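Researcher: Let's do a round of design. I'm pasting the structure tokens now; please hold your answer until I've finished.
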């Protein structure tokens, strides 16, 4: 070999080092890396077949033969890896069964390199241009067939799976390449190895198969862009969005439109976009005119509008935003979002809110009625049904607490127990209805004579009791006289009676002014003691001739 040959070889290695550098450092996907490795191994086979015929040295020829078959092993493994990555089944590489495949490939590779006792390849006519093959070669062919079967199975699984149409399209290209290469390799083996003694060798069959399969990939790469992953991902993302997307250049020409928008707008890539064609109903036209003004007169501003289209029976939110590069607008992005469902939900929510509000008002009304009813029931529980004043039960509960406080604070108080004189005569002479009128009239007179802090309660039939808090015996005596006078002066007019009815009352007055005595008894017992005392005073007033006051001072 001359110096020029070595220069070319040196340049080849430099270029190869640059290829490895780019391969390792540039950010590309695993699929790209596998394909580049696969494509590089495809180049080596025809190169080795050519180089084999350029030398007469048997050792160099053997080197190229071994390099060719080492390349074919790598080509087989690369093809399988490429198939796995392309079909998205990279998880298969993590399985232990895959390791067996690598081990077998490594053993065959070692056998090819070592060629023990020429069990892989034997020279013919003193060289390796024409050669025969040993058992290791047939083991290699078996490995090749098994690898092809595995690749075909993976491809078949991908084609019958639920993979996207894009994946299936890529797998179809791989299938064509596998079939072409397999046919040519098996023909090469059959015609040039099995039948080499009966017919002349047909050169370049495997190389031709590699070339045709590579052409399939070149066509697919340029026509279908199966490796343009960024574009594919970009298009897949845009097409899967429910948001309608329209991309325009600076001349308002459509450069991108996704599937969500296509059924709603009559535009194709390359058409000129006319904003006036989107004019909505009159009821939203004013908002759209403002949007249109901003769109046309202020193109660098982002603008948005929501309008209703009768043709679509939908509320559409339209957003226009400029695409700016280096402070220069190079296009626009328009997004179209269907908000009909949102409006429907809002309408349903408002309707539900109205229903809930009506129910709340009804519940509030019921609550008010219940509250009023409870108040009435509570009032009925503590008042006398005939006169409307407090009943004995309420007075008893009230006075139990009052007595304790009065004893602690040493506040004087008085209790008046009064009884209508000869009330039975009123009932007998005029009837019970007139008697009820007399009782009610007497209660009104007593109420008018009392202070706000005083308590009036019906003690029994025609007996009433008055509690005068914070009142000494002098004041209590004056109040009792005043009440007695007012009752006696009261003239009760009854429709059924020709003349007015007058009554008098007898009173027992109990004044508590001395707190030196300690009450060890319970409030109930103390109250019973007070009631008993004032009752005795009333009894004395009746026995003394009625219409008078008997006072007991403690």
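Researcher: That's everything. Go ahead.
Model: Designed sequence:
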């Amino acid at each position: 070999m001359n110096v020029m040959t070595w220069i070319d070889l040196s340049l080849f290695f430099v270029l190869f080092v640059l290829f490895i550098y780019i391969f390792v450092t540039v950010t590309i996907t695993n699929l790209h890396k596998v394909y580049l490795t696969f494509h590089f191994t495809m180049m080596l086979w025809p190169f080795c077949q050519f180089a084999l015929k350029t030398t007469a040295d048997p050792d160099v020829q053997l080197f190229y033969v071994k390099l060719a078959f080492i390349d074919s092993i790598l080509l087989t493994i690369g093809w399988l890896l490429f198939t796995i990555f392309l079909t998205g089944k990279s998880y298969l590489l993590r399985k232990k069964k895959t390791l067996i495949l690598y081990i077998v490939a490594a053993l065959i590779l070692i056998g090819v390199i070592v060629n023990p006792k020429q069990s892989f390849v034997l020279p013919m006519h003193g060289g390796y241009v024409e050669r025969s093959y040993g058992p290791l070669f047939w083991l290699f062919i078996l490995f090749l067939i098994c690898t092809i079967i595995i690749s075909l199975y993976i491809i078949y699984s991908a084609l019958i799976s639920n993979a996207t149409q894009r994946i299936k399209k890529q797998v179809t290209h791989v299938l064509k390449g596998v079939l072409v290469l397999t046919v040519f390799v098996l023909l090469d083996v059959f015609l040039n190895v099995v039948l080499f003694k009966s017919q002349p060798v047909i050169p370049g069959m495997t190389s031709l198969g590699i070339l045709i399969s590579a052409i399939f990939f070149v066509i697919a790469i340029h026509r279908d862009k199966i490796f343009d992953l960024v574009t594919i991902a970009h298009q897949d993302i845009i097409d899967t969005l429910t948001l309608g997307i329209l991309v325009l250049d600076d001349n308002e020409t459509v450069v991108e439109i996704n599937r969500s928008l296509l059924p709603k707008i009559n535009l194709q890539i390359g058409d000129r976009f006319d904003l006036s064609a989107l004019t909505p109903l009159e009821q939203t036209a004013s908002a759209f005119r403002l949007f249109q003004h901003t769109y046309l007169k202020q193109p660098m501003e982002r603008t948005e509008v929501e309008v209703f289209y009768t043709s679509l029976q939908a509320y559409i939110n339209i957003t226009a935003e400029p695409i700016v590069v280096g402070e220069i607008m190079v296009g626009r992005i328009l997004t179209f979002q269907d908000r009909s469902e949102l409006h429907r939900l809002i309408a349903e929510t408002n309707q539900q809110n109205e229903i809930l509000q009506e129910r709340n008002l009804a519940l509030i009304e019921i609550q008010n009625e219940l509250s009023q009813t409870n108040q009435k029931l509570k009032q009925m529980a503590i008042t006398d049904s005939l006169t409307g004043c407090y009943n004995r039960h309420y007075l008893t509960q009230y006075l139990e607490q009052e007595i304790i406080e009065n004893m602690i604070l040493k506040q004087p108080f008085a209790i008046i127990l009064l009884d209508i004189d000869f009330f039975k005569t009123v009932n007998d002479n005029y009837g019970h209805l007139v008697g009820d009128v007399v009782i009610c009239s007497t209660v009104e007179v007593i109420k008018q004579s009392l202070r706000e802090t005083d308590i009036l309660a019906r003690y029994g039939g025609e007996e009433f009791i008055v509690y005068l808090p914070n009142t000494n015996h002098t004041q209590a005596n004056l109040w009792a006289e005043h009440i007695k006078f007012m009752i006696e002066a009261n003239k009760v007019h009854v429709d059924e009676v020709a003349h007015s009815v007058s009554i008098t009352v007898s009173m027992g007055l109990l004044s508590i002014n001395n707190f030196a005595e300690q009450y060890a008894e319970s409030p109930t017992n103390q109250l019973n003691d007070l009631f008993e005392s004032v009752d005795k005073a009333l009894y004395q007033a009746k026995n003394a001739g009625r219409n008078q006051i008997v006072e007991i001072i403690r």
